[in-house]
Every structure is written in structure tokens, then in C-alpha cells.
Amino acid sequence: MNIMDMYSYQMTEQGKDFSLKTQNLPSLNDNEVIVKVAGCGVCHTDLSFWHFGVKTKHPLPLALGHEISGTVIMGDDDWINKNVIIPAVLPCGECELCRRGRSNICQNQRMPGNDFDGGFASHIKIPSKFLCKVPDSVLKKFPLEHLAVIADAVSTPYQVVRKSELEKNNFAIIIGIGGIGIYAAQIAKVLGGIVLALDIDDSKLDTVKNIGIEHCINIKGLDIKEIKSKIKEISKKAGVSPYCWKIYEMSGTKAGQELAFNLMTFASTVSIVGFTLDKLEVRLSNLMAYDSRLIGTWGCKPELYSEVLSLVEEEKVKIEPFIQTFPLSMINEVFKNTLGHKYNKRSILIPDKH
Ligand SMILES: [Zn+2]
Ligand SMILES: [Zn+2]
User: How far is the CA of 104 from the centre of ligand 2 (A)?
Assistant: First the structure.
């Protein structure tokens, strides 16, 4: 393979195997760079495109993948040879929302593996503006490819925990300890919360305990009333305040959302992080009666990435126990196994052809 060549695995049709495409490296406009991909995480959003019928914004064929780390090899001089994490959502930086500090919901935002060819490739062309530089000190502790998960799985919960204004000793209840919840629990703890993890899977709750989250409940088969009384018991034992609870709905299920709303107490903040199309019937006036807040969150603004990276570097947020790597050439197998729930860690694909 010529040094100026690149390859990618293109999604051609829903549910079909990805097909290998070789091409020349694309030409660059101003403020664009080519990143040699170190690793790209497999996110549920990729499965939504590949299996669940969600349409990519760019027509197929398209390389998926938006959780990317790598090294800049072409483009602006300042960026050459820099190791970077590519934010999963690249804002324009100039519109009203960007100027208001809400760049994560910039309406001109572009997402790798959705608006243009993504990270399941040897190289990717990307605007340089919001790349997150990875300092060498971090790379002494972690291989660059492992840091790919910061682009989405770790940064999304970071933004919401910050946005919920979690304060020291607030009771932080995480509903759903999946690929995002596991980081939300750690981040809430690092930022001073007393964390309670709720899930229906004992193995997930064991993982949470292993990283030092003391309070867990398996809520399988319990109704809201039973869950509430168990939570009350724990909160009393732990001596946490009955007010100002921060509740994070990460499961993306109707049952999870119903529970989140019902756990609201005085001066609470309920954060909706998971997504479902299902609708819920709730008494919104509870918000008024409890003087509480219900908030949403979308991704993470690139401006916060360096803070997330610091938490990982200081090992306050652990990533290593929750990731596994595969050669990119195994993409078809990895997608099928992910869909079949065969993995309990997040997969990172690493380009293996040269
Ligand atoms: Zn994602
Ligand atoms: Zn913008």
C-alpha cells in the first residue's frame, strides 16, 4: 500500500457487512488536517445506523465511527505530529449557540461517521479547530488508542454531571450502569457526590463496586415504591441529605425515566441522558412543588475535553477496566457480537492493515 493511500470500512446498506475501500488521502482545505487513526470506539449510535434503521446524514456508503483518537500527519503546521482526541461533535464555533457557550448543540455541527467518513478507517479528514491535544504525560500512562473512549463515552456524562451543578455530598443517583453510566458514577464521585448506582444486572453492579462506588441496588423486579424505600434506607445509613438529589437517567428506557422523575425530592435535579422514543405520563407540577429542575443534555462541548482528559490522566476516572481492543479488520464480527450483547466492555477498533 502506498504511503499516500488510506482505507476505510464503508457501510453500504443496513445490516450488511462493511466493505473495505482503498483510496488516496483526500485533499485538504484551510484549517483541515488528516489524522492517522489510533483507535475508534464502537458506540450504540453506530449500531443504530447499522442495524436499527437510523439514517446517517451523509448518504451511504459511509465509514461510521465517531469516538476517535489519533495523530495528525497532514495539514496546519501547528498540528503536525500532535496526538489528539477528535470530539464526537464538531461545532462551527461561530453561530449564536456557540457564542453562548452551548457549542455542543451547534446547529451547524458535524459528526464523523454521520456527516462525513468517520473513524473506522486508517485515516480521517477533519477540521482542526476543536481537536483536543493529548499531552505526552497522558501517553506515558495510556496508549493513545484507549483514549478514544473519551470522545464520547466519558465526555457525555462529564458534561451532564457539571451541568446538573453537583455539589459536595449531594446524593447522586445513577440509573443504568452501561457504557456511559459507569463513567457517570465515577465522575459524580470525583466531583464530591455520594453515589448510588441502580441497575438490573448484578455483574454491572459488581463492576461498579470494584471501582469504589459503595452504594448499589439491583432494581430488577422491584416497583417504584419498593425502590424508593430501599433508597431511603441507604440514604439514611449513609447520612446523606434528603434534599438536593441529583438523579441521572442513563438507561434510555421508559421505566428508567419514570423512576428518575419519581425519585425527585426538594431542590432536585433530574438529568435525562439516555434516549427512548417512548412517552411518559408524569405530573409536571411536581417540579413546581419540589422546586426542582428537569434538564437534558446532548454530547459534550469540546471546550470541556481537556478537563475530562485530566481526570483520566490522574486516574480519578478509570477507563482501562471497561474497554477492549480488536483489529479494525474484525469490524464485521465486532459489530455482530456487540449487537448480540456478547461483550460487556466497550470495543475499540485499531487499524491493522499497512
Ligand atoms: Zn457515540
Ligand atoms: Zn455553531
Answer: 8
